[in-house]
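Comment on this:
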Amino acid sequence: MNTPTSSAPNPRDSQGPAAAAPGAPATHTPASGALPRIAVLATGGTIAGSAASVTNTSGYRAGVVGVERLLEAVPALSGVAQIQAEQIASVDSKDMSLALWTTLAQRINELMASDEIDGVVITHGTDTLEETAYLLHLTVKGSKPVVLTAAMRPASALSADGPLNLLNAVTVAASEAAHGQGVLVAFNNRIHSARDVVKTSTYAVDAFQSPEVGALGWVQDGRVEFQRKVLRPHTLDTEFVIGAQWPAVEIAVSYAGVSRVSVDALVAAGVRGIVVAGTGNGSIHASVQQALADAVTQGVAVVRSSRVGSGHVMRNGAAPDDTLGFVSAGSLNPYKARVLLMLALAAGASGNVALQKIFDTY
């Protein structure tokens, strides 16, 4: 297994592709009249899925269509960018692994440092896209655009949504306006920040939303417009990098009648952190709360998130946070909170005070 480790934060040029700060990865501005050079990294997913019938949108195999065929299905790309295609993996994103995260992040960072690439697009499955996007948002070291896209219908389907999503993602990655915005998700004509976006439907082509703050902007018919900027630190402004080993962090859930069995089992297995998907405002059943409090005394970091689809988990000044040593995830859902906790622990952070500062920052 590979893992993130810590490094000092680097300055970020958030205004666009101007000269990079000393020590920062290089940026490249295309010559006047030249099309931007975009690397398309394929990882599989429904966008690369195939079924026996054009009307079958659920009984298909994900990740079986290669990146060259995906690109051939979108001839309009030739008018948007010069494409460099790479097949990084061919997986159903429900099976995304920590090792593949490491491989993907490292390859993107190599491309960030290349004078021959102006931006990166990643084709991905929808199931874990929001987790991969947030991980990259925190670990990619460069101001060039990095855009993830996906599809809800396989490539073989009638009215497949993948080709247009791919065209729009490349269009965003080729846009000057996308520089310095961190990692983005282009889906169904909207542009989302990796931190905010979540999957909200099991079947609809409009499956991704940013529930708390809304999309950053939109892309349609070759036009890209951002209506706000990302304010929280990301990419070059984080202390996180991909390294050699991932700390074990798991998710527990609170619900009516829950016992402490799962939490005790995770602690016994040696996890370093537990994110709890609490009810409502991150509230936790008494039995699980006691188990988590016991876990903290054994050196396990505990973060309160919520199983609710939107809203903030407010930090409780007395109980349970200060009294029991818990951390509030804020507006991060349990899955993104797990990503941040893994990176924070790998960077050497420990104790609820230091961890809370990280969650408040990112």
Remarks:
- The two ends are 25 Å apart (CA to CA).
- The chain has nine helices and 16 strands.
